[in-house]
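TA notes, week 10

Several of you asked for a full example with nothing omitted. So below is the full record: structure tokens for the whole chain, then the designed sequence directly under it. When grading your own attempts, check the secondary structure regions first.
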């Protein structure tokens, strides 16, 4: 994945050489930014971003007040490689035949160029997917062990994932936290080890409904982020997935305002606890009942840098629609 359009940073603002200093003329569109042919997203430039927004998150799932409406907007480059990021988590679904069809559908889909796309098949199908899926799309594991391997029945090591061609691993998914009982401490150890194998990490965080309703969203997400921060050597190959548990697999998607509020708060947390540079570069993607129809409105929000998709990633054409929702972000940025 090419790294272009690196952001620049100062004590007061986070900007981008390519977007801010180019001679981009009105109506010329993103493609006309001479030194930055890649996607240009939106980033809030005021120093208050996210702080007030989080208070509104604490009230419950029906909260819809937006921190973005009152903030100063400025066009700067997307975090990380400057690309939207969409991951498909296939969970424990499929068989050889259905996965062949899904791969065929993805291979024939027309995908926007400026999106990093990753799919996470069940472990046993990773070799099939790696050998048949277009190289345009990377493959991820849905989990990995805390170390190299050995007498750990049922586990898969990061070494094994890398060996069969995976470039990424999803860690901290709520189904592993809350169904399999994984602690943040274990997830941190898994992350630390996966990083030594050069796997990109999709680091999942998110609150349960009762945590949101009791005003603990920020505390929960911050604690989960801290466990990643304590374990990761750096954030250069990490994408944060904000996935409110109440929205996963429930059909109850967070409103764009709710998602934006938490994403802005996560970026603020990164800025304060890690560094402004990491806050600017790290992509923060949303997960929780994202589908074809709702993806374009979510994608327009300035701190939503892509999606982690469960159910809808099992349908090739719909997953392609979600990937291509980057076009709605580009329209907002234009
Ligand atoms: C997920 O599993 O990460 C997820 C977001 O699932 P769904 O899209 O089905 O809610």
């Amino acid at each position: 994945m090419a790294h272009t359009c690196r952001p620049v940073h100062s004590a007061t603002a986070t900007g981008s050489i390519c977007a801010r200093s180019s001679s981009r003329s009105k109506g010329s569109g993103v493609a006309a930014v001479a030194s930055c042919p890649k996607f240009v997203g939106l980033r809030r430039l005021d120093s208050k971003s996210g702080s007030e927004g989080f208070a509104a998150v604490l009230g419950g799932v029906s909260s819809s007040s937006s921190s973005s409406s009152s903030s100063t907007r400025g066009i700067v480059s997307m975090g990380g490689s400057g690309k939207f990021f969409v991951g498909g988590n296939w969970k424990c679904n499929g068989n050889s035949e259905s996965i062949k069809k899904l791969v065929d559908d993805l291979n024939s889909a027309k995908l926007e160029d400026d999106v990093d796309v990753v799919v996470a098949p069940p472990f046993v199908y990773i070799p099939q997917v790696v050998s048949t899926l277009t190289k345009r799309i990377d493959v991820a594991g849905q989990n990995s062990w805390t170390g190299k391997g050995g007498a750990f029945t049922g586990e898969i090591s990061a070494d094994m994932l890398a060996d069969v061609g995976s470039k990424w691993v999803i860690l901290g998914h709520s189904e592993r936290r809350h169904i399999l009982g994984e602690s943040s401490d274990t997830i941190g150890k898994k992350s630390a080890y996966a990083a030594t194998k050069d796997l990109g990490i999709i680091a999942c965080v998110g609150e349960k409904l009762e945590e949101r309703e009791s005003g603990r969203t920020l505390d929960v997400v911050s604690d989960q982020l801290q466990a990643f921060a304590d374990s990761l050597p750096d954030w250069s190959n990490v994408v944060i997935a904000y996935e409110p548990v109440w929205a996963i697999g429930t059909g109850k998607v967070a409103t764009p305002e709710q998602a934006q509020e938490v994403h802005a708060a996560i970026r603020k947390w990164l800025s304060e606890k890690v560094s402004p540079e990491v806050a600017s570069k790290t992509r923060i993607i949303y997960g929780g009942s994202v589908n074809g129809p709702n993806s374009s409105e979510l994608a327009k929000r300035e701190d939503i840098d892509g999606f982690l998709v469960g159910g809808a990633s099992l349908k090739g054409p719909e997953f392609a629609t979600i990937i291509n929702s980057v076009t709605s972000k580009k329209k907002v940025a234009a």
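The longest strand covers residues 84-89. Use that as a sanity check on your answer.
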